[in-house]
Amino acid sequence: MNCFEMLSDIERDCKLNAIHLPRQMSSDRDWRGIGFKVGRFHCVCAMQAIAEVLPWPVMTPLPSARSWFRGAANVRGRLLTVSDLQGFMTGLPHQPGIKSRILVVHFKDHAYGFAVEQVLGIERFFGDEKKSAKELPDIQPYLPYVIDAFEHQEKPWILLNFEAIFQDAAFYHVLSARMEGGR
Asked: Domain spanning 35-182: which superfamily?
C-alpha cells in the first residue's frame, strides 16, 4: 500500500466515523450588526455601514468648531473628519479612553469618522428581542437617528441609522454658533 492509498483509507474512515455537528438554526428575523457604546446606550448598526474600526488617531482640532467635532486625522494619507457621536446626538461630549474607537462610515464618496466609547463586536439579535425605541428611558436625543430597539442580553440596544445623521443639516454645521453668526 502506497502513501496515497493510506491517506485515502484514513479519509474514508474519518468520514464514516465522524460525528456531525448540528446545524445552527437561523430565522429570517435574526439580524447581525456591529455593536458599540454611545453614552449609556448599547448601540448597533448594520455591518455594511461600517467600513473600518480604528484606534484613536492623532487629530488636528478645527478652531472655533462645535464641541462634538473632534477634528481631522490623517489615516494612511487620507483626511478623515472625526465627530463625537455622543456629543453630536446629546450635546454631552464623550471623554476618550483606552477602549475608545473611531467607526469609519462612507457616505457619498466621503469617509467620516465617529468617535465611540467602545466597539463591542458583532452582535446577533433575534426577532423576539425587538421592541419600540420610544419605550426606552432617556432616548429622546437619539430618536431622530434610531430605526429600532432590541432587548438583548438583558440590556436595551438601539439600532442607529447613520444615513439619518448624514441627512441632518446640523451635522454639517461644525462651526460654533458664535462663529457662524459673526462672519
From this structure: CheA-289, Domain 4 (2.40.50.180)
